[in-house]
Write a structure and sequence with these properties.
CATH topology: Outer membrane efflux proteins (OEP)
Strand order of the largest sheet: 2-3-5-6
CATH class: Mainly Alpha
CATH architecture: Up-down Bundle
Radius of gyration: 36 Å
Strand content: 5-15%
Structural class: alpha+beta
Largest sheet: 4 strands, antiparallel
Helix content: 55-70%
Number of helices: 10
């Protein structure tokens, strides 16, 4: 079974009250539908391919259900070596360091300084050259009375969380792209094998036609027509091989390796196991709660709220406590221990609208972030609806194609027998052979589409970002 997490939707009216705490997709103001529109009109029965279920959980190792050890090995290596994923992780490290910078502003800053010199400072040293030593500690602490530094720290924390979620989204995208390319490669591999099998059959038909030509039972026209069929089929193989090569190269790149590095592994034949067509789907609210891209948008919105708070706090005084303690000495003079403490206050008075413009800009960025948040939620719903629809339609199409293959195979066998006995024309046999090849190729492509559509469902549900 394929399992997806169930959760209930909450009204989106509390968005602005959430500030920098985790908002969740329910705070976007977009009401998630109670059920998927592609499923709620379908009768729920044991034979229904997709069924909504409230008791299941998201599966983050969904690729194991395909039962393909090569795919599992590729995914493991990609998670270790993929460059895009490593770049995303480096962005998390950068955001974590920036949060540390923002957090440091909440605490006192203490600096030490020391100097030593030999100098004649005129009247200050009685016109003598002296050895002078100086050491001091300076401390300052900005009293965050109006919350500016707190807001900056909250903004940095939200940005860090958004980068962590973005890394999870990159991981989901990586797994999906790798699986799609793998199934496409297997499809091209199967298409090549089918085409070669049909090519051999068509060559036998050509040989039979040539024999009949010698016996006066066929014309040269029949021979040329059969030969043309052979050439046409043979011409399809290079294009399929080029597509196979492109998929194999892409898989190596996704593994973070040069082309050809894992071709030996990819050439290991793997039988595509039949799919389990009973898949359990969670409610829309559950899917929205699980998707990292929605968390990215929500955290960026939270960061924009904190950024506006920080910009607003610039209107108020900057109050700092300062202190210093030092020790001075000079040759021939008594040592001194200067010290002091004080309070500094800086209040913006005249800046010709600069601070208000910064607030307006922060407000506009907050509106953009909120609208992007809403758009991400809508696109997430669209992604799942589209994936469900494609899988349902392809399931029906695949069954029809399977029937067509069986029917065309029987028709080709009958046409071959009748042609050999002189009861039908060569054209009928060639058409039957071409129809069989087209039907088999269509079914192979549909089998790959079903797997890719299933991957799309897992991806749209947010599966794969957890270890």
């Amino acid at each position: 079974m394929r399992n997806l997490l169930k959760a209930s939707a909450v009204s989106g009216a509390l968005v602005l009250a959430a500030c920098t705490t985790s908002l969740g997709p329910q705070m976007s103001g977009i009401d998630a539908p109670a059920a998927w529109t592609r499923l709620d009109s379908k009768p729920q029965s044991p034979d229904t391919p997709l069924t909504e279920d409230a008791s299941v959980q998201i599966e983050h190792d969904w690729w194991k259900h395909f039962g393909d050890p090569t795919l599992e090995a590729l995914i493991k290596e990609a998670l270790d070596n993929n460059k895009s994923l490593q770049i995303a992780k480096a962005r998390v490290e950068e955001a974590r360091a920036n949060r540390g910078v923002a957090r440091s502003s909440l605490f006192p800053q203490i600096n030490a300084a020391a100097s030593a010199s030999r100098a004649n400072q005129g009247f200050l040293t009685n016109d003598r050259a002296l050895n002078i030593g100086d050491a001091e500690l300076d401390a300052s602490w900005e009293i965050d009375l109006f919350g500016r530094n707190q807001a900056r720290n909250a903004e940095a924390a939200a940005i860090l969380e958004s980068e962590e979620a973005a890394t999870q989204a990159v991981r989901i995208g990586l797994l999906a792209e790798l699986a799609r390319n793998y199934f496409d490669m297997r499809n091209f591999e199967r298409q090549i094998a089918l085409t070669r099998e049909n090519l051999e059959t068509q060559k036998k038909t050509l040989d039979l036609t040539r024999v009949q030509l010698q016996g006066g039972y066929a014309s040269d026209f029949d021979v040329q027509r059969a030969a043309a069929q052979v050439s046409t089929t043979d011409a399809e193989i290079p294009a399929l091989e080029a597509s196979y090569d492109a998929a194999a190269v892409r898989l190596n790149i996704l593994l973070g390796l040069p082309p050809g590095s894992r071709d030996n592994l990819l050439r290991i034949e793997q039988e595509m196991k039949p799919l389990d067509h009973r898949i359990l789907i969670a409610a829309p609210a559950a899917v929205l709660a699980e998707r990292p891209d929605i968390r990215v948008a929500e955290r960026r919105f939270a960061a924009s709220i904190s950024a506006k708070d920080a910009a607003t706090a610039e209107l108020f005084p900057d109050i700092s406590l300062t202190a210093f303690f030092g020790a001075q000495s000079a040759s021939g003079l008594s040592a001194a221990t200067p010290w002091g403490f004080g309070v500094n206050l800086v209040q913006p008075i005249l800046n010709f609208g600069r601070l208000q413009s910064q607030i307006d800009a922060a407000d506009a960025r907050q509106k953009q972030a909120f609208l992007s948040y809403q758009q991400t939620v809508l696109e997430a719903l669209e992604n799942m609806e589209g994936a469900l629809s494609r899988y349902l339609r392809e399931t029906t199409r695949n069954a029809s194609l399977a029937a067509a293959v069986a029917q065309n195979r029987q028709a080709e066998d009958l046409a071959r027998q009748q042609y050999g006995n002189g009861f039908t024309s060569l054209l009928d046999l060639l058409v039957a052979q071409r129809n069989l090849l087209d039907a088999e190729a269509g079914q192979a492509a549909s089998d790959a589409n079903l797997r890719n559509d299933l991957v799309a469902i897992y991806t749209a549900a947010g599966g794969g970002w957890r270890d």
